[in-house]
Fold these 4 entries.
Entry 1:
Amino acid sequence: MSVVTDTMRNGVDTEKMFATLDLLKAQPELGKFRFRASNRWIDGSHNRSTIKNFYAAGGEDTTRTDEFRIDAGEPAILLGTDTGANPAEFLLHALAACLTTSIVYVASARKVRLTSVESTLVGDMDVRAALGVDHEPRTGFERIGVSFRVTGDAPPAKLREVVERAQKRSAVYDIVTNGVPVDVEVTTD
Amino acid sequence: MSVVTDTMRNGVDTEKMFATLDLLKAQPELGKFRFRASNRWIDGSHNRSTIKNFYAAGGEDTTRTDEFRIDAGEPAILLGTDTGANPAEFLLHALAACLTTSIVYVASARKVRLTSVESTLVGDMDVRAALGVDHEPRTGFERIGVSFRVTGDAPPAKLREVVERAQKRSAVYDIVTNGVPVDVEVTTD
């Protein structure tokens, strides 16, 4: 629940936000974070991730009281039974959520009060590569399209600036547009 | 629920799988899929995606009876109230889920019966860039580490081959390692 005070804007405590920024300027080493997810196969395309603690600001963050459990699946046409959204759809969710939170945080810092932020994301994929039928198409999305509708107490040009700045601040947008090195280790016993 | 028959392996109907592959070989245009997510800001770092229909195999797939609703959030140290896993954690979940399902499908096609697939993913990030304190570190993960433990009725070398092939077949692994073009459109009314 958000307490309404002078420092709250868009549900963000801007006093705490600026204090956090000042702290990170003074002690840059506190910016090192490590997020984690553990996943376990259940059956077929059904698997579940658990997410809880993470490393942040010089130590293990154990403030979350409960773990998040997130089930994935596939629809029937991709040989599953809809036990959850599929992994590619979760990637779209991650991107939508990160851009949206970035928009809200940037707007809050710039004293823009938002009334709504809505988005629709589409990802185009040729599933023949993922299914091993043809190696010509790429395996992942060929492109992702994001349509935002943002309203608030600022002129359209300023709202567009907020979205542009949010793209530069969004961790998942950086990951998805630029790629990240992934190391995979395997044990079999 | 999986019905145990000769064609079921690891919860995957291999007869249906091979029929799908044959169909896609005969009619490559059926491989074009479009996945979607719609997201709406709720408050602060709390937003929610809804995921349901998608375009597949020449038409709109409306077989899902219910939509998936997925809430995102941030922990207190990142100015949220833990309304859900955060977007970067959801990206790790998407990657874990996609690699795991790819392992299960590849194993099923190769007649390997799996007993367990477990993984732990870590993503290292300097949050100063996302918070706008410093533009030197990249905004997203610097690297992602994936540790799989895979067991089944095949020798270790064959299980490792399954994981290697699954990396090539995983849509999210391709997206995260290679990046994807993202087009962002904005309306403000």
Entry 2:
Amino acid sequence: MTEHSLWRFSRALHRAINDRHFEDIETLIDEDVDWALYGPIDMFPFLGARQGKHAVLDVIRQIANNFHVRRFDRETVMLGIDSASSMLRYSLTALDSDKPISLRVAQFARFRAGRLINMRVLVDTFDLVEQALGRPIHLPKMTRLG
Amino acid sequence: MTEHSLWRFSRALHRAINDRHFEDIETLIDEDVDWALYGPIDMFPFLGARQGKHAVLDVIRQIANNFHVRRFDRETVMLGIDSASSMLRYSLTALDSDKPISLRVAQFARFRAGRLINMRVLVDTFDLVEQALGRPIHLPKMTRLG
């Protein structure tokens, strides 16, 4: 059995973010990749939708400029022939402040010939924003919860 | 081929939320279900972790008391033998204010003998909070994005 594309992609991604080694990840992204990290792009300009390998590599470089991955735990994973989904828990360090950030992430990927062609990532964004701000945002309690 | 447990569960869940018909969903949840909807529980007390069928049915009743599902689109879906993951886009109405809420959700489910035993749901929570508040939360731009 050959290794699933997810594992190779995941290793290359973390090597790019932590070691600024971008050669491996470059070969694992399709020229026509369709990519979206959902979240508040006003605060984190590297979030949002991107089309094409060049734009996606640029996002990965920006993430590498801002965060270090201390550890990640894959809580759930589903593997298809050319697809994968997982729920992960990341422990990051924000490089500008040296602050720890802990984050839950859901990720859906599709591959073609071993290269990433589609990526959708959802983050517990409110939790992320509060940690990045370094303070809680006051929220009213919603009513009608009988 | 028999129908995947996900489709039966999804129909029953939406019938519970929109029509307050809880009989079907009751039969599709395992007594020992392990359940978590990640998000700000201060604002939405029905979010968070729950153990057991009784606690989960209570959550579904609270969601039914607060929201109506206008439509949902399953953007991505992966089906395993007894598992399923999907990324969905929900259009809800908040019942207390009659306000529309549009929401992206990632959901990972596991079934045993057709009954739900594990559910993990991640929501684009910052987007949810802003819509529930009815106003944007001002965010500073993160630096070091070269």
Entry 3:
Amino acid sequence: MTDHALDFALKLEPLGEGRFCGRTTPEYWNMGGPFGGITAALLLRAVLDHPQRRGRPVAQTVNFCAAVGEGGFEIQVRLVRDGRSTQHWQVEMIQDGRGTVTTGSVVTGAERETWAHAPAAPPSAPAPQTVPVMPTEGRNAWLAQYEFRVMEGRERFDLEPPGETASAASRLWVRDRPDRPLDYAALAGLADTFIVRILLVRGYFTPVATVSLTTYFLADEAALVRQGTRPLLGVADARAFRHGFADQSAELWADDGTLLAVSHQVTWYKE
Amino acid sequence: MTDHALDFALKLEPLGEGRFCGRTTPEYWNMGGPFGGITAALLLRAVLDHPQRRGRPVAQTVNFCAAVGEGGFEIQVRLVRDGRSTQHWQVEMIQDGRGTVTTGSVVTGAERETWAHAPAAPPSAPAPQTVPVMPTEGRNAWLAQYEFRVMEGRERFDLEPPGETASAASRLWVRDRPDRPLDYAALAGLADTFIVRILLVRGYFTPVATVSLTTYFLADEAALVRQGTRPLLGVADARAFRHGFADQSAELWADDGTLLAVSHQVTWYKE
């Protein structure tokens, strides 16, 4: 535990029997609630803190059911299945007066060596220190908790409508700010730092929300330790925006070319 | 309800209060249990059959916790959140003596018209009738319930090890066999017809299992009706195989170029 804003935001107190309590923090505030990535990291942290947990995170799905309010929350963790290769967990975040605001599932798996193969190649990128850091002043608080060095993709979406339709693709270096050694909870948060694509495409603000987020963790803990505090290379893109919903997929790469995580989400938009 | 094997496999009897019962069918049998796509379709069907369900499926995650045994099962559906734009559902499949074998979540959303944009273009493909149908004789039963016309990607994986490492990518036309009008439950099944990629890559059988499957439904019901019984264009690929787990992503396109669904999964492999 450090005094990093992330560690402070991920502070959970065990209440026993798979129950934990915590509080939202202003540093990770988004528009009408906490940044989704911090909620994902909290649900993962609760599973990782469970005394029966074995192995590392393999998959996480988070369903954002309702706005999380400012203040306290409880996270309830249930081990549904304790198998030889995997453990299956169900997680819920509950708030007084709001009921269940988030549901999720986590799969953990044993660390072991197997045949390995990496058909996907990392995207090309100049060294992070050669790319300017995106300014985050005057924007939603959570953005300032990350250092974004954007190589491709619109950085701002405060144009007057109608903006020019732009690409949904981003390529950037990203890490926690101030820098912090990478771990799975941080990675779960980083996986959601790719702005909801419609804002990039249209260039102006319109009500949006992540509906469901799924992250696959494809690296062992040693790869995270190797990466340490250095920026991750991220890419994201969307396939289709239609009938008020859109998908997007992102990849997070270590700077040695190891794919650390892939993350997919479906987002809601109003107009 | 027709006498199609899919409709027979998806037959659920309501037990009241979000509980349904059904039975596995031999037609969709895989190696050590039912084909994962039929389980996904069943969980979706249970949500769609729930009297409180509004709107169409938007997202589904299925966690394959344990092998589903031959015979009866119960599906329990819980409406966690009934919002204006989305409904959030939790689903579990339970078997006597086995407990919870599958968990899942489903998000449904209202059908409505909005701004639309399709940055992803459909893959190129020759007309389906010009591509030979993949033989499925002597293989796991479920394969015979689909008509695969493979344009790219290894079709068999019964080589003696060591096979030559091949691409993880597939491009194919696929539909239910015999052909059947497309609906969301069928689409949920089709989304899992992309063979676990490690078998294609290595070319020989090795123990594998889908751990978690997430499908986003990006089309309204009208698009499914338009597609009717004609083959869908599918592509799939994997990014990384490491430490006993691998990811894969697939897209299912209507033949008019509409992206109907994207599907992601993380798979376990033994060696």
Entry 4:
Amino acid sequence: MAEVMAPAPRAPKEPRNGVNTPVLLATINAVKETPSLARFRFRATNRWKEGTYSETVVEAFDGAGGEHAHQTQFRYGADHPAVLVGNDRGPTPIEFLLHGLAACITAGIGNIAAARGVNLTSVESRVEGDIDLRGILGISDEVRNGYENIRITFDIAGDAPPEKLRQIVEQSKARSAVFDVLTNGVPVDVTVNVR
Amino acid sequence: MAEVMAPAPRAPKEPRNGVNTPVLLATINAVKETPSLARFRFRATNRWKEGTYSETVVEAFDGAGGEHAHQTQFRYGADHPAVLVGNDRGPTPIEFLLHGLAACITAGIGNIAAARGVNLTSVESRVEGDIDLRGILGISDEVRNGYENIRITFDIAGDAPPEKLRQIVEQSKARSAVFDVLTNGVPVDVTVNVR
């Protein structure tokens, strides 16, 4: 999901990179005319299983004026690894943030390249986050709980000059929902019901 | 991953909730003595497939003074849904942030309850995030790219008074790595190599 309009006047009209560019541009125009279509609410439910292991189901969301079911009910586990006294039945929860970041910028690259008439050959990324667990273990109040920093490196290839490929990645970063949330933060409300 | 030390003097020594409490407390003590053990680096690699679809592999991380392979190579896809001109082969990248948040606080609840001698019966959560896609679609510069807000509601049951169960959730939130990253943000560096 990313800014795909620039440079709009020369945007090609054919599908490219597996992106249905005409439909994408028509969708953007429809949202311009009816801004309420842009309001989305994504949802997930999680259930604790045992220890540090839990499972999340992602199956539907609201948006574009209605509710939408995903084509599949997606289910993901998360756990702590053995070195952190878990059973390693899934990645740690914070590893999923790395997946979300890489996938978000990459999806935008696909869209933007299509809109700019660039055929991509490959897009690969490596992402890593540094964390000092003295925060979450309650050992030091001077250490934050989460990542201290995240780095992501893209290797991109396609039928455009290096500078144009570079600009596609930059534009995707500039319009990435996950990049925005991770770098700028978002208010999170937590409610507790005791059963 | 969460603060499990309070109230340490009365922390029970037996496994509980599927948490090996003695090993967990011993791990915390080991990190207290050798703080460098607390330095972790989590990693993921992502590969673009087509359109807005990409796949991420999570298989190893550094921490506690060495490299660790996960017991399984975890692989996750992410895509845009049909209403956003994708093929819905996976959740959207930002839905994975909701999974990470719910799973992180839930893992902490398991650990903290065990450390405090509470047997949990069930922990379920519903999490949702509101987003106005005019940001990422480049339609309005006054709309942010990411979630405007996230809400998570926990239903918890166990063999403790309501207030004690409530405090366990609060303590997990206070020491959650994902809650910290989402609410406070983290620096993200993006590097681009053209192949």
